[in-house]
Specification:
Largest sheet: 7 strands, mixed
CATH architecture: 3-Layer(aba) Sandwich
CATH topology: Rossmann fold
Number of domains: 1
Shape: globular
Strand content: 25-35%
Order of helices and strands: HEHEHEEHEHEHE
Number of helices: 6
Number of strands: 7
CATH superfamily: Vaccinia Virus protein VP39
Length: 179
């Protein structure tokens, strides 16, 4: 999903380094780095297992970078030209106070030259914070999108998706972009 979104956003491929907030296994940051052509990665996640997996993902894909233990709300976000910041499927997991602080840091990072990408699932129910974040991103010169990309999943993944009640014919997400 991240690869498709980054490929569709103008200017997303002009980063030299990527900060992956709440990196999990590192898939989203790695996807952006591969679209870019090997940008350096720095992942942050609170779970030691995820940190190890993200570092393994980077290494297996031949990417420069590593993940470290930490929390999104305490991450040092400096901002600067050539930096990409991604928060994929992690902002919704934060408390309201942490989310508000992060929004301010991300908008400030854009003012300093960073490109910022937030990806979340398209929710069936309203997510109260999304509207405020969308407004802040658009007012800062960014954009909000909903994405639907055709998915040609291998048979096993298609079966798992159906069993989970998901639509295996397409990948969907929404994003906020400051580029």
């Amino acid at each position: 999903m991240t690869r498709e979104i980054v490929g569709a956003l103008p200017g997303a491929s002009i980063v030299d380094s990527i900060l992956d907030l709440g990196c999990g296994t590192g898939a989203s940051g790695a996807a952006w780095a591969l679209v870019r052509g090997r940008a350096a990665l720095n992942g942050i996640d609170r779970h030691p297992w995820a940190v190890a997996e993200a570092t393994w993902t980077y290494r297996c894909l031949g990417l420069r970078g590593r993940a470290v233990p930490g929390t999104v709300d305490r991450a040092r976000i400096r901002g600067g030209r050539g930096e990409g910041i991604i928060a994929a499927y992690s902002v919704n997991e934060l408390t309201d106070a942490s989310r508000a602080t992060l929004l301010s840091k991300l908008v400030d990072a854009r003012r300093k030259g960073s490109h910022v990408l937030v990806i979340e699932p398209i929710a069936r129910r309203a997510i109260s914070w999304w509207t405020d974040w969308e407004r802040a991103f658009v007012e800062s010169g960014g954009r909000a999108d909903e994405w639907r990309f055709p998915a040609d999943l291998p048979d096993r993944q298609r079966q798992l998706a159906r069993a989970a009640g998901l639509q295996p014919r397409e990948l969907t997400a929404r994003s906020l972009w400051l580029g």
